[in-house]
Each structure stands twice: as C-alpha cells, then as structure tokens.
Amino acid sequence: MEKKKSLMKAYLDFNVLYKILIGLVVGAIVGVILASSGITALPAWISMFGTIFTRLLKMIIIPMIVGSLVVGASSVSPANVGKIGIRVVIIYLVTSAIGVTIGLVMANIFQPHAALASVEALAKDAAGKTASTNVWSVIYNIIPTSVLTSLVNETVLQVIFFSLVFGLCLSFLKVSKVERVAAAANTTYQIFDCLTEIMMMVVRGIMQYAPVGVAVLIAEVFAKNGAKVAGALVTVTVACFIGYALHIIIVYGGLLKIYGIKIRPFFKEARTPFITAFVTRSSNGTLPTTMTAAENLGVDKEVYAFSLPLGATINMDGTAIYQGVCAFFLVMSTYGRGLAFGEMGMIVLLATLASIGTAGVPGAGAIMLAMVMQGINLPIEPGTVLAGAYAMILGIDAILDMGRTALNVTGDLTCTTCIAKKMGFLSKDSVLLKK
Ligand code: ASP
Q: DSSP assignment of 228-288, as one string?
C-alpha cells in the first residue's frame, strides 16, 4: 500500500509535459512494433483510453472559453482604459493577429503534415464543404440570436463574442457608483473567476491523464501509418520556431524602430524574462521578472503595472503563431489538403480572440487549439483521424510551449515599452534613449 502510494505520488510530482512527451515516445514505439507485425488497429478496450481523453478535452472547451474570456475582459479596469489602455489593447491584438498570419505563412511554406488522411475523413470533409458560405454571414453570425443555443451548439465565435461583451460590461459595473450594483458585479466576477479556477483544475486533472490518452492515440496513428509520420513533428517544430524568430525580428524589431527605441539595450534587458518564460512556460509565472525588466528599462510603473499583467493574460503572440502552424498541420494531416482562404481568415480571427482567453500557464495554448478547430467547423471528435493528429501535437507541446511563452512575454514587454515611449512614460535617463 505504502509503495503504491509513493508510486502515485512520484507520478503526480513528475513534470506533466515531460510525462506527455514520454507518452508520445512510448505510444510511437508500440505503434511501430504493431505496424511491423501487421497489426494496424488496437483492440477496442485499449482504444477506449484514447477516446476518453478526447472526450474530456471536448468537455472543457466551452466552459473554459466562457470563464476565461469573461475574467480576461473584465480585468481591464475602466480607470485604466484611458488613452494608454486602449492603445495597449490594440497593439496587443494587432501583434497577435500578425502572429497568426506569420504562423499560417510558415505553415504554407513548410507544409507540415503527417499524411494520415483516410477515405472517411476526406468524404466527411467533402460533405461538410457543400454548404455555400456567404462572406457577410460569417460576420453577422458572430452575433448570437440566442446565447443559450450558441452554448448548446458550441458555436465558438458566438460564445467568444458574448463572453467578451459580458466581461467588458462587468468591468464597468464592478466600479459602479451604485453600491448595490458594484457589490453584485464583484460577486459575479468572483463567480466567473472561480469558474475559471475550477476549469483550470479540471484541465490539470485531465493533463495528469493525458500521457495515457496520448500514448494510446499515438500508438493508433503509428500502427496505421508507420514510423514515417515522426518526421512531420520535426517539421511542425521547425516551422513554429522559425515563425517565433521572424516575429521577434520583423514585428518587435520593427515596432522598436518605429517608436524610436534602441534595439540592443532593449533585448539585453528582455533576455532575462525571455529565458525565464522559456524555462517556466508560464507568462504569469514570469511576470515578476518581466516587471523588473520594464523597471530597469525606465518604463513608468503606472504603465507597466497595468499593461504587463494584462499582457500576460491577453497577449499571446507565440501562441498565435503556434495556432496557425498547428491548425494547418491538423487539417493537412487529416484531410490531405491545405487551408481554404476563408478558413485562414477565420483562424486569424479565432486565434487572436483566443489569445485573450488563453491563460498564461503551461499548456493552455493546446486547449485553445482544440477551440480554434471547433471554430472552423472541424471539431476534434473522439475516435477520428483528427484526434490522432491532435495527440501528436500534444505530444510535443512541451517543446512548442517553451518557444511560444518566451515570445508571449517578449511581446508584452515590447508593446509596453513602445506605448510608454509614445505617451511620455519612459524615463529620460532610460538606456533605450541614450545616444
Ligand atoms: N504557456 C503559455 C503562456 O504562459 C500559454 C500557452 O500555452 O500558449 O504564455
């Protein structure tokens, strides 16, 4: 009994993302062995463990969006949404949108895919695509006619829209002069905050099970397709990391230049939060280090004390790039085709908005990827080829998350410094201004 207990404790204590990586490797080895012995499918009772994992993931998507977006949107305090606040929010959203676009460009260049396409998947896709899509209807369909129906039907964009409206109104009511309203709004905020905490706890639980789920799903993929699919994951990683690097050079380098900030001393100071984020894979966890860097750069506390915590919550450029690359990988691997133009537009919109709801904690972006897929009408259903492809991405999430978190944090610091400079909140003695 003692031994059993300590084994369980050792399992729970071991870093979850490495466990998932081990799950990926074990699943791949088992799958390859099965394939070489001519077995291409797992028995139903084993396959069930993969299905349970996919169902658990699907289960949390909608409550997760509602909770985290309401909390994310209502954490923008109206007192701060002056000229600075609006500028910060806009620059955060614009850089995230550019991030997804870079991700999609990388995906189209590298074409990462594992050729898992099955006849059923292709047929299902063709059936789904027969309905004509009117561009304007995509826009007005963002507004739900019934909030409950959009929740029940899991219409992601509508749920996002309503949650944001709800959250923004809540942020105003929280500081209402009418005491009764302010008290009720703060209680409502606490309820949604608690909902988000509960969902995070559920996610942590699911992630403890993930190594088993991923191992089974990957074993299925490898048994069916052989070892050749492993190379695809290397391509995904390369495409993401080149995307991250380009974003730093083009977007951050460009912004610093435009705002007249010296690039070298900036990156010298940004190095510490960058490395901390790379290691911890958490924007929130890196926040103290990012704030120290902003302080050292001479950014006024009035600006960074508001914009950095906000950035850790709503600004996720690295995650956005990852969404672009991985959405392409999932569609190409499953349906044997690239992304349609409309789908790419939708991914830019969804991933930008999703970044508001992505918590700054390890692995959160991978859950949002499931949401983005749901949003482009290709939900990750249990027992499908798409679920196998998604498990492949989850298997290497530890690696992808390091890079994207480092970028997320660098983005927060870059945007904060630029806005501070523009609005006169950068110290005259800052190393960023010296000749
Ligand atoms: N780990 C990331 C962060 O904390 C979020 C993500 O998983 O994309 O910024």
A: GGHHHHHHHHHHHHHHHHHIIIIIIHHHHHHTT--HHHHHHHHHHHHHHHHHH--HHHHHH
